[in-house]
Amino acid sequence: MALAAHCYDGQSSRMRAARLDCADGFLQLAFEDGQLQQWPLEAVRIRPRLGNTPRLLQLPDGGRVEVADSPELERWFPDGGGRIEGWADWLERRRSAILGSALLVLAATVLFLRHGMPWLAREAAERMPPVVERHVSEQVVALLDRLHFEPSQVPAARRATLEQRFLQLVRGEPRSAQMRIVFVDAARIGANAFALPDGRIFVTDQLLELAGSDDEVLAVLAHEAGHHVHRHGMRSALEQSSVFVIAGLLFGDASGSSLAVSIPVTLLGSGFSRGHEREADAYAFDLLRRHGQSPKAFASMMRRLSAQVPEALEQGPIGYLSTHPPSPERIAAAEQAAVAAGAASP
Ligand SMILES: [Zn+2]
Fold first, then answer.
1. Distance from the CA of 21 to the center of ligand 1, in angstroms?
2. Using an 8 Å Cβ cutoff, are 67 and 3 in contact?
3. Average pLDDT, whole number, for the chain?
4. Where is the Peptidase M48 domain (predicted)?
5. What is the distance in A from the centroid of ligand 1 to the CA of 264?
6. How far is the CA of 272 from the centre of ligand 1 (A)?
7. Helices 156-170 and 274-290 meet at what angle, rounded to 10?
8. Is 168 helix (H, G, I), strand (E, B) or coil?
9. Which candidate, 193, 273, 208, 206, places its Cα nearest to that of 238?
10. What is the mean pLDDT of each run of 10 residues along the chain (346 residues)?
């Protein structure tokens, strides 16, 4: 069956009407004036289908043929002008496929955010130079300044003992060379401790006052050491920031500087995920056990902490300080670890 076609010679804009047919591997053009042209099919290129627009054939002499889409063309040019384009067209023609691919993209995005992003963040955090960790930590401290940290009022002797015991505990641990305890008086945030990406571990006088013993303080410090060993600060900041960077790429506002600015703010706002808390807890229990100390001290400190809600945390969302709140699960896990440690020791 011949198809009505419009032909252009490629040199002028003149259009000639013709009938298009195919026989014995040749494409035939029968013009209205009786002229006949023949081209071997393999020498003719067909442009991929694009929605409902006419199909375009490219002739070897530079001429062009425009023809309404037809199943005939499918038979003459089985590969349809390109595999990828053919796929795109196939998808375009099927609503369910469109919906399916939209869902696929959505699922891939969710999967990436949930699994790919944490993986990327960990890889990036592991390659983060210490100078960046220091820089980010400085900015976090500057942001925390409005919480009015004062020099610690706790007797120097107790601080020295704690510091010494802590250093003994983490000796030989990965990244322990960077770890340093900073004692502060912080009435506004109350009993708290937190690790900065550069290895500084802040602990408040209020936590030392609340603790029933230095063992309990040490248990909390072990947990903070876990955050540092696993680079949780940088990892969660990168994970959170990456969402914004991706959003920036998608919506056209991506710059490295916005990442540098967003890291400390993000870190402060979002804090650690539950997964990070669990990981730091597990690290602490193991570290304590390896030094003959019971994770029970961690459970009792958690209980004390759960009884207080610091003023600053009620005032605003400072996730960095508020993700630590003890949960019944964490206390139960510590007690379980203590039982396991007790059973394991002679
Ligand atoms: Zn924590």
1. 75
2. yes
3. 83
4. 159-336
5. 17
6. 7
7. 90
8. helix
9. 273
10. 89 89 91 91 84 86 91 83 64 76 86 81 84 86 81 96 97 96 90 91 94 96 96 84 59 50 66 85 96 94 78 48 68 90 62
Nearest to 262 by CA among 279, 276, 247, 252: 247
Report CA-CA distances (Å) from 283 to 225, 265, 293, 337. Answer: 8, 26, 13, 11
Side chain identity, residue 312? A
d(CA 345, CA 340): 9
In angstroms, rounded to a whole number, what is the distance separating the alpha carbons of residues 21 and 225? 78
Q: What is the pLDDT of residues 183-226, one digit of tens each?
A: 999 888 888 898 999 999 999 999 999 999 999 999 999 999 99
Compute, in angstroms, the gap from residue 280 CA to the centroid of ligand 1. 6
Does residue 45 contact residue 39 with C-beta atoms inside 8 Å? Answer: no
CA of 212 to the centre of ligand 1 (A): 20
CA 112 to ligand 1 center in whole angstroms: 25
Ligand 1 mean position, distance from CA 84 (Å): 49
Measure 345 CA to ligand 1 centroid, in angstroms.
Answer: 27
Give the distance (Å) from ligand 1 centre to CA of residue 334: 14
Give residue 20's identity as a one-letter amino acid code: L
